[in-house]
Records
---
Amino acid sequence: MGDSRHQLFQQFARDQWAGFHKGIEKEGLRVDGNGFIAQTPHPRALGSTLTHPRITTDYSESLLELITPVCDSTDAVLASLYDIHHFVHQHLGDEVFWAASMPCGLDGDDSIPIAEYGSSNIGQLKHVYRQGLAVRYGRMMQSIAGAHYNLSLPDSFWAQWQSALADEQPLQAFKSQQYFWLVRNFRRRSWLLMLLFGASPALDRSFVANVRHTLSPLDSSTWYGPEATSLRMGDLGYHNNAQASLNICFNELSTYTSTLAQAIHTPWPEYERIGTRRGDRFIQINTSILQIENEYYSAIRPKRTTHRGEKPIQALDARGVEYVEVRCLDLDPFSPVGMSAPQIDFLDLFLLDCLLSDSPKIDDQECSHLDDNFKDVVNRGRSHELSLVDGGGSTNVQDAARALLERLEPLAAKLDGLSDGDRYRQALLQQRQKLEDPSLLPSARVIDAMNGAGQGHRDWVLAKSREHQQAFRKEGLSPQVQAEFERQSAESLAEQEAMEAGDTQPFAEFLAAYLADE
């Protein structure tokens, strides 16, 4: 069936292919001139973090999140990301936008300010959710940054694809089914992205102060994993005992939303012991395994744009899957915006192949093997001795990676033929070169660059961040783009003020209604 799906796509004509829709959400810390996490509030010139469509914060007040619109090309989405960075760099003053996923200098939990979103009930809900993350996991995790890549295919493709497969269900049901088909294969292969794009093999010693770990010293200020690709995606980053108890099923939409809903409604004893309040102050939304769906950490999520106040599960159940969100990407510290064009093109190719390849349902045994493969590449991906579980046997990681890249060649050629270019074959070639010369892997490049500069993690990333900032500040935005960003900032502040003025319901009542609304 997998080969037949590829053969069906090979028959697509140019007028049947409208390309990909794509967007990027890029996180990054604001830091002071010494490479320490910023203690200042979100710059007012950047607008309201609650309502601005392009510039907000993630878990921490210091952790910016920049959001592109949905674009129809790699060049367009990168141009948008560059524009947002230009505007942000104008308003950071003496602060710097941190270029790496693992954080700058920290001084324990208290040094990491939790994001604030104003006094409206929605704003307070976002803040309380983050307070809950702090009491459940500690704040250190809230200082880690990454890039999320969002991809969808247009309805014109889905109609053609449904016809090619002779499928007769409603179009949206078909789309949801096919996106989960893609997700299952992504889970089987996501280890490859950690090998090719993992770029966080080292961290500042302040991140693991008083924490037991197995890292090695790079210098007096830096710990690293000699064979690691992404400490961000390892146990030092997104890991939690309560979530380890979950068995979220990615086989189809109904099981995915039902298992997530169960987690949101299943109490966890430790969280019950903490409670939801300290005095009159709310410190978590509820005492369940998950407060809300977004608390579940996974390398990929099926997504649907939500209406204000709507829960993600409600949106998915009501309107089906709209796009997939790839969440396991480290920031590329060598790129001024954390991502590059060849990387984005490869992700498109990789994700399309996940859709076109055979994708049986994942049983519990395979699920365990997939998780182990992912963890092994995160922790030891640059070891030539590492083997991955594959079916009933095991395969050397380099051999498995080469086999996956080789199978992408016909698809890359097809996509290039549909667009009269060679960008997909070039993106694929760049990844193959990393396997032939492992010193080209981002995780290896980071260690080599630190050693070459004679700098630890904090000093090297700070220097790289300043280099990017200086380049942005030398170039200006066009007057039209500048004016548009200023308009968005002003309008977002006005919108937040209007929301706060219009909220008369006490937050406790609002939260009770939110939790009761299924």
---
Amino acid sequence: MWVSCGVHHASKTQLISDGSVVYAEGLWDHVTMDIQELGFKAGDAIEVIDATNKEWWWGRIMDSEGWFPASFVRLRVNQDEPMEQLSTHLEESQCGDEDGTDLGLLGPGLPCKEQMRANVINEIMTTERDYITHLKDICEGYIKQCRKRTDMFTEEQIRTIYGNIEEIYRFQKKFLKGLEKEFNKGQPHLSEIGCCFLEHQTDFQIYSEYCNNHPNACVQLSKLMKVNKYVYFFEACRLLQKMIDISLDGFLLTPVQKICKYPLQLAELLKYTNPQHRDYKDVEAALKAMKNVARMINERKRRLENIDKIAQWQSSIEDWEGEDVLVRSSELIFSGEISKLSQPQTKSQQRMFFLFDHQMVYCKKDLLRRDILYYKGRMNMDVMEVTDLEDGKEKDFNITVKNALKLWTRSGNEVHLLCTKKPEQKQRWLRAFADERKQVHNDRETGFSLTEVQKKQAMLNAFKSHPAGKSKAVTRPYCDFLLRQKHPSLPTALPQQQVFMLAEPKRKTTFWHNIGRLTPFKK
């Protein structure tokens, strides 16, 4: 059996000092922040060697030793029990007989499952209070000191390094107050905290901005840490605030890990909550909601990475007219070659179509260089209706069609006929048009939009990639990465390791590289 790491701290320290072997189980993955830290996965058994420090313990897994956070593990009660018997014993102690009369007891008269629920609740409360202290230390120990040194930091630099962590701090204080209100100190297992997560599920979306900015923070910090005066300054801030010995980039990683730890905590809580418990349905709904938050953060990061690719694509198109694609769009939904007929024309034209959210751009291929495209026009998908046409006579154009669909406006001032070579291609386009509307609706619901700064920066980066005097076709041919592309979309239920990939960044590397696999612009 296991108990919360904070429950028997004194007795456990006594066990270690007596020379006993004390084991703990990893509750969550611990991403190593330093060579002196011990990394482990949830479920790993860790031999606790030194637990004199309340927050950071020294432990061993096979031949590896290092520091690890005490809040990431729970202690084993029967320390003399062989490790291989753990799983069987744990299952038996949790389940007991079906009628619940033979459940093992951990606390004063409490069945094992209820005691385990109490332990998880206590862990949630403890880690939440610790997190508030952590955010306070960053805001008061670092940001406040940085603002005093206008000779070293501009407000823009401070915003880049710390993102919206002050906003997160204000929200988390409010969230903790809600948790404290629902927390039953005398009988923690009776606490009903699921409602707190549900009430604030949309507020947690502020983490999206922080996670999106985090790579920029790492780059900015890396530049500053090459200068000794900044190294000394940040170390002085840490010592003044009496913070543990971790570098600033390690502290700034915590919010990224925190938002992805909530679903794991709620999954653990649900595991030890009886379906008859008043909190069961709320915890179940909260788990789903927080998984969605983690998924949304992953999705938003992917979208923001794609805008550079969209800008680069536009800069490769010859004779571009009108506003930039990014003014209205941020996602390529689908692309392909279709025969187009528009009134009052009577002759069909082969065009490359690129369906984005809110608009569709069509281009003409160069007759000799097929990798060069010329801009020919665009359609506003917000006012377009799509009709699936049956094979045969089409009344508006008075021609016979096959594998065709029609795009038209209710005002009647714009009608386009699109014909594919095969019926399955038409069906794929019909799905794409439905996906485009769904994307627009989802963005409206979640409030996703690009800032003017993000749009301008993406276009600036794209034009920088085409030095003056060089042909666009030479520096950035479009077709290699668009004509052969696949158009993946995020599945409704991602495997856990994908949903929570934010929680496992590699130290001193760009941790978002995994999300790049989801981009539709990948070669």
